[in-house]
């Protein structure tokens, strides 16, 4: 493909992968208005975020085999159409329970973009280019937190929070048109892939048995759940504790998005000198240190508004490095079952995000401690899984070598 096609394909894949993040970020400034209009509390509205993440987690597992069996585009159009219908349902909801349910179905549709975009990277680009491509897609995703909350804040303040979901439906309709006319088909339908439960589970089991996939999916999934702690708690922390307006919150969210944009660009240069494995280890270590400083600072009241934003910025720079590199390493071992591997990886990430966001909501205590505490937990947990997993692999590898030498001598 020429340079123009290369850029355009990455742009479409980036938009596809951005559907769910945009759907999360855009309605965050509307939480207080939604709570007031639906006569409920913010922590109840936060459950609509949790239900969205649960929907993504479940949906990705379902779409993985479908993308392998029917090819990429048919399941893609089905999921995005479901998203559009559910978005309209969200706009006309009359209670927080209905909103929670509609957000679940919205996620079940929109999450196909996450799975399909990752599978299409494996279809359309050689293995040595995938970490770079994932970085560029992450760059497109990183623009979402700059635009979505700002737009959501102004839409909520000037018109109504209901229009946020109408706008989302319109955006996804345009993405569907771009996919139809410009996106390559990718891997063709594979009729040998069975959709029987036993066969599907067998395919997933084949993926899970790959040590490299398991280590980098588990470690990367937990590490990349840290922003969900931030997303779940930030509207309450900044708007209720620090008393910023909806529009100011949108600008804060946009500023913090620069952390991820800068680091995704940095990843391009780092990959020329260092391996993805080295980048991940270093990033998780420094994020863990920053996370512990955040906990100590919030607990001891060291931070004002601006110093908290500054420390959050430093922490979030790591997200643009861990996500692309763990994605590339997780999918690298597969030429077959790519859709299933992408689904499992994405499901674990969003499942971790759902649990983390629910815990932040559950621990709500009118301080920033639940938010920063779970952010630190994600980095520390990811670092622990990475070191432990690699140590176990090295142990079994050395043990096999010893056994082979002994068998030769005997």
UniProtKB/TrEMBL annotation:
Pfam annotation, one family: MFS_1
Domain of life: Bacteria
Location(s) in or outside the cell: Cell membrane
Keyword Magnesium (UniProt): no
Family matches, as InterPro entries: Efflux_drug-R_Bcr/CmlA (IPR004812), MFS (IPR011701), MFS_dom (IPR020846), MFS_trans_sf (IPR036259)
CDD domains: MFS_MdfA_MDR_like
PROSITE patterns from the UniProt entry: MFS
One term under GO cellular component: plasma membrane
Keywords of the record: Cell membrane, Membrane, Transmembrane, Transmembrane helix, Transport
Protein known as: Multidrug effflux MFS transporter
Annotated TM spans: 45-64, 76-94, 100-121, 133-155, 161-183, 213-231, 251-271, 283-299, 369-393
UniProt family annotation: Belongs to the major facilitator superfamily. Bcr/CmlA family.
Entry's Gene Ontology molecular function annotations: sodium:proton antiporter activity; xenobiotic transmembrane transporter activity
PANTHER family, per database record: MAJOR FACILITATOR SUPERFAMILY, POLYAMINE TRANSPORTER 2-RELATED
Boundaries of every Major facilitator superfamily (MFS) profile domain copy: 6-399
Single biological process term from Gene Ontology: xenobiotic detoxification by transmembrane export across the plasma membrane
Mode of membrane association: Multi-pass membrane protein
């Amino acid at each position: 493909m020429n340079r123009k096609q290369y850029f355009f394909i990455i742009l479409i894949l980036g938009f596809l992968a951005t559907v769910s993040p945009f759907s999360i970020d855009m309605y965050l400034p509307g939480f207080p208005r939604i709570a007031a209009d639906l006569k409920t509390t913010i922590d109840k509205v936060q459950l609509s975020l949790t239900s969205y993440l649960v929907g993504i987690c479940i949906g990705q597992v379902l779409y993985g085999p479908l993308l392998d069996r029917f090819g990429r585009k048919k399941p893609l159009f089905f999921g995005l159409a479901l998203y559009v219908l559910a978005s309209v349902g969200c706009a006309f909801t009359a209670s927080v329970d209905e909103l929670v349910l509609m957000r679940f179905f919205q996620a079940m549709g929109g999450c196909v973009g996450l799975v399909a975009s990752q599978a299409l990277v494996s279809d359309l680009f050689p293995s040595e280019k995938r970490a770079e491509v994932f970085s560029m897609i992450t760059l497109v995703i990183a623009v979402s937190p700059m635009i979505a909350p700002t737009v959501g804040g102004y839409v909520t303040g000037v018109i109504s929070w209901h229009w946020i979901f109408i706008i989302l439906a319109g955006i996804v309709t345009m993405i569907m048109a771009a996919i139809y006319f410009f996106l390559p088909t990718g891997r063709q339908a594979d009729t040998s892939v069975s959709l029987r439960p036993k066969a599907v589970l067998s395919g997933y089991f084949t993926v899970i048995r790959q040590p490299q996939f398991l280590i980098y999916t588990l470690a990367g999934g937990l590490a990349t759940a840290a922003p969900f702690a931030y997303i779940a708690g930030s509207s309450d922390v900044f708007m209720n504790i620090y008393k910023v307006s909806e529009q100011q919150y949108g600008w804060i969210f946009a500023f913090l998005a620069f952390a991820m944009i800068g680091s995704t660009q940095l990843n391009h240069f780092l990959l020329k000198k260092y391996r993805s494995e080295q980048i991940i280890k270093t990033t998780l270590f420094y994020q863990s240190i920053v996370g512990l400083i955040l906990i100590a600072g919030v607990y001891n009241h060291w931070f004002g508004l601006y110093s908290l934003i500054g420390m959050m910025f430093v922490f979030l720079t790591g997200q643009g490095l861990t996500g692309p590199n763990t994605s590339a390493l997780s999918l690298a071992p597969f030429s077959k079952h790519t859709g299933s591997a992408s689904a499992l990886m994405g499901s674990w990430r969003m499942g971790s995000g759902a649990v983390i966001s629910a815990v932040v909501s559950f621990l709500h205590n009118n301080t920033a401690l639940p938010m920063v505490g779970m952010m630190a937990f994600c980095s520390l947990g990811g670092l622990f899984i990475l070191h432990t997993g690699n140590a176990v692999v090295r142990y079994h590898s050395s043990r096999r070598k010893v056994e082979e030498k002994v068998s030769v001598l005997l």
